Amino acid sequence: MPACRLSGCRIGQTGECMEGIKDVAECPNYVVEGSGPASDVTLEKSGARKLDVVRLPLATAMSPEATYEVTRSSFARVVVCAGEQRSGKTTLLASIYEAFQQGQMGTLAFAGSRTLHGFELRCHLSRCQSGLEHADTDRTKPGEGFQFLHLGLLEMSDDTPTDLLLGDMSGELYKAIRDSSDECLKYTFIGLAHEFVVLLDGRKILNGEHSEAFAHATSLVRALVDTNVIGRRSRVTLLTTKWDLLRVKGKEDERARLGELEQHFLETFRPMLGEVLCAHVAVRPDKGDPMGLETLVRAWTARAEMRLPPAAPLVEVPARRAFDRYAAIRRTESPWGSTW
Predict the structure, then answer these.
(1) Which of 17, 298, 311, 317 is the most buried (most CB within 10 A)?
(2) Nearest to 81 by CA among 199, 242, 194
(3) Which residues pair with residue 109 across a beta bridge?
């Protein structure tokens, strides 16, 4: 039976490669059950020439620890996305990658990725090779924990490179962090992100399930604030997904309802956070092109630093020990000044 080294490939069941390679024998991940790599002894006996083996990185999603190699070597923007199951979080990340496969996003161009396989696994169910009639996205599995996807981007107007690290957490992890302070403290690196994005499912706004969905989103942000994981240096965005369902004619009441929820979110968290924003996006609408995707990516890659609250003035505390007071006087009277 044919098999594939990549998880999620169903070549053993369907006989079709998830990457669309027609001759599966040419796929580097294709293996035949029971076969394995030939040993050096076998190669020597057969007289075959031993080839130099170049090991390539797996290019799957990165752990939080693995992102340090990116952040310490380039200008990187870290974006953490959190949302309930089926809120559109993984679809959002996959759609950003797919948009760059079609060409530039304005003046932003694709400049590489260290997690190509991670993106491809998330995009597979939206491809013809998946065999599905309608595009879908494989949801983030609970056992995968917290992972990051990497996109290298280039601003064509001034040749400025930017590395975008997109944090992806499962819906189960979202719930655990929302309901437990101990879980919040396990992910303190969220506070180091340039953007923390909380997704609000637009379909639930449409179906009248807005109260529960909004309560879960605010509870998550509140839990992270209460444990000091995020605070006055954090930028938080409430992102409503599936905006195409709400912007059509006849949904004025639903849009007004969303506006009230957004206003409440802003008023609640502005005193606690550095910056609070609201945005809308529709990455895979039933009709037409994606909405709000370029604006969102532009905001994430902006190099302008967020304005921080003014620092409190330093207050000089009188020295308690006589020796410290003597040293202060000597520094004042010394011709060498503070270098004394």
Answers:
(1) 17
(2) 199
(3) 154
